[in-house]
Structures are given as structure tokens and as C-alpha cells.
Amino acid sequence: MSLFVAGFEADSIVDGPGLRFTVFFQGCPHHCPGCHNPGTWAFEGGTPYTPEQILAEAKKSPLCKGITLSGGEPFAQAGEEMQRLISLVRQAGYEVAAYTGYTYEQLLKGTPAQQAMLKSLDTIIDGPFREEEKSLELRFRGSRNQRILNVPKSLAEGAPVWDARRWTGDLM
Asked: 78-136 pLDDT, tens per residue?
């Protein structure tokens, strides 16, 4: 089995704090108007990669400290291979974040695979991109409705916990 990838961005400074390795997954059910990456919407296409191959790509960037899962919609490929990828990159010492058009609350009620994927992440940037709430002043998110959430703290507290200070220096 493989994960279907639309592309990679090594040493990204726009997909989270510090230098990050970003994986753009192929396929998205949301089709948000104004999406910055509509080429990833189709579920057909992409290049198949094993979790080990994705980790090997990330390791080519020696200063990278975090992996960002983007898309498309990474939760559309939630399952055994995605769990293996997250496990491997965490074992290699990377922080793992994901952009998703789903909200945290939707993922808590999602498929068992989506729930397991959520629980294995450090951070999510959740919610669909909304063109009417777009702001170029926001760091690491495209529209004001999107939240930067600390997943372990959110799960422990039973409610969404913002992680904006660590990611942007802002309180919100």
C-alpha cells in the first residue's frame, strides 16, 4: 500500500514554525472556493509513496524539525499507511502537524482511522478555507475561521486548545 502524494516542499517557512518538510497529499473532498491548491482535489493521480520513502525525502533536509501534512486533504488518506508515516516521522524526532478542511470536532466524530490519525498529531490547523474570511495578515492559516490547535492538550481538556502562541507568537 502507498500514500498518494501531489508533491513535497522541503525547507518550507510558510507551513508552520521553523523549517518544515511539507507533504501535499492528493485528493480533497472539500473543494473550498479560493483554495490555493486546487490541483490536489482529484483523487485520481498523485505519485504513490511508502511511508519510508516519504521519511527518506524529509531526511534530505538536515535543518528541518517538523513535518506538515497538507493537501489536498491528509485525513482523506487516514488509515494504516498514514499511521505508519506519522509513527516513523515521530520516531525520527519530527513534530507533526496537519492542515485539514475538517474541524477538530468533526474529526473526533470521524471514521476510526481519522480519529486515530488526529490523536497521533501534535498540531492541526482546522476548518475549511473561507474566501470571505481570507486575510494575508494571518500566519500559517488562510482564513480567520481556521484554528491552530494543540492536539494533545485539546484531547486532555476535552475542548479545542489554541496553539497560536507557539506557532505565531500571538494569543489568537
From this structure: 999 999 999 999 999 999 999 999 999 999 999 999 999 999 999 999 999 999 999 98
Whose CA is closest to 104, among 68, 71, 146? Answer: 146
Amino acid letter at 111? T
CB atoms within 10 A of CB 60: 11
Q: What's phi and psi for 28, nearest 5 deg?
A: -150, 130
Cell representation of residue 77: 488518506
CA atoms within 13 A on the CB side of 65: 5
CA dihedral 100, 154, 21, 84 (to 10 degrees): -90
Give the Cα separation of 150 and 82 in Å (integer). 20
Residue 169: what pLDDT? 65
CA 132 – CA 113 distance, rounded (Å): 32
Report the Cα 142 to chain-centroid distance in Å: 13
Ranges of beta strands (E only) in 26-118 are: 47-49, 66-71, 95-99
| C-alpha pair distances (Å), 155 with each of 100, 108, 116, 118 | 17, 9, 12, 10
What strands lie across the sheet with 147-150, from one edge to the other? Answer: 47-49, 3-12, 20-25, 66-71, 95-99, 123-126, 147-150
